[in-house]
Amino acid sequence: MTTPPHGRSSDDDDQDNNNPSQQPYYPPSDHPEDRSDFGYQGAEQAAYGAYGDPSENSGRHAAGDYSQSEVNPGVAKGTGKINILAAVSWGFSTTFRNAKLWIVLGLIGLLAIIGSAAISFGVLAATTDFDAANEQELQSFGGANAASSMVGLAIALISLVLTPYVYRLALFQVDDPATGWGHLWKDTPLLRTLGVLIVAAIVNGIVYLLTMVPLNQALEDLVDPDLSVSASAVLFTVLGFVVMLIWSVLSMFMAWAAASGQFGFGESLKTGWNIGKGNFGKLLLFVIAFQLIAPLAILLTFLLGIIVIFPAYTLMLAHMFRQAVGTAPH
């Protein structure tokens, strides 16, 4: 074996063979570019060729994985706060701006309401003798009313199933101004949204029953001249309506959170609750104002107002939800 010159080692000879031009040797550092995984997926830097990959972004959106400023560039992180006036303005303007979608949907909704009413009345008319005078015929009238109620129940179930798709379509409209009929039925977490809707409806139904029992008793007291209206019945009725109103605000965005695809079942309930609680005063005034103004506008327009009001209201809520989670357009 050859003895290396003084001050050198065998490793130095190997480096000379690998570096015949005798370039200066620099020891390894902790810079990112010196790491062996630099330029590959999983490193701190994105892999080469991964920038602006449309398929990756579209895949994330299809899965409902929205991040701040990803849907709408320049959007600030959501604070949970809602601007009611901005949502109302955007809802009405978008309804007319994308009339081929939302006005048509409003027209379909109006026709569905008229059709369901006609079917219910038709069933009632076909099975009832309106000149009934004896008890047996009155019982027959009750059976016809039950049949009409079954028709109404079927229509309500159909509406329940369609609601998640309408919510998702409205959220698409907030995210993408070019939303059209092709977005309908797309990327909708149906079962999750239905589950949240059913939970909210069950709570609302319990409150409704607690309200109607004393209300019916109060009405019976009014019919009987020998009895005065029960103060407790009136008190429970008023309290029930107040509780229903409060719950309608707190549960307003639960189903929207589920329909967005961003949250799981339990998280949707929590997110919707937090949005309602954090904006309770504003949302309460909004609900009261809408309940007063919308029916009046619909009556004054001979039901034609439904074509605009219902789509606009849906878009308002979608915009409010996106405001709260930080992905609503400016």
From TrEMBL:
<feature type="transmembrane region" description="Helical">
    <location>
        <begin position="280"/>
        <end position="313"/>
    </location>
</feature>
<keyword id="KW-1133">Transmembrane helix</keyword>
<feature type="transmembrane region" description="Helical">
    <location>
        <begin position="101"/>
        <end position="126"/>
    </location>
</feature>
<keyword id="KW-0812">Transmembrane</keyword>
<keyword id="KW-0472">Membrane</keyword>
<protein>
    <submittedName>
        <fullName>Uncharacterized protein</fullName>
    </submittedName>
</protein>
<feature type="compositionally biased region" description="Low complexity">
    <location>
        <begin position="39"/>
        <end position="52"/>
    </location>
</feature>
<feature type="region of interest" description="Disordered">
    <location>
        <begin position="1"/>
        <end position="70"/>
    </location>
</feature>
<feature type="transmembrane region" description="Helical">
    <location>
        <begin position="190"/>
        <end position="213"/>
    </location>
</feature>
<feature type="transmembrane region" description="Helical">
    <location>
        <begin position="233"/>
        <end position="259"/>
    </location>
</feature>
<feature type="transmembrane region" description="Helical">
    <location>
        <begin position="146"/>
        <end position="169"/>
    </location>
</feature>
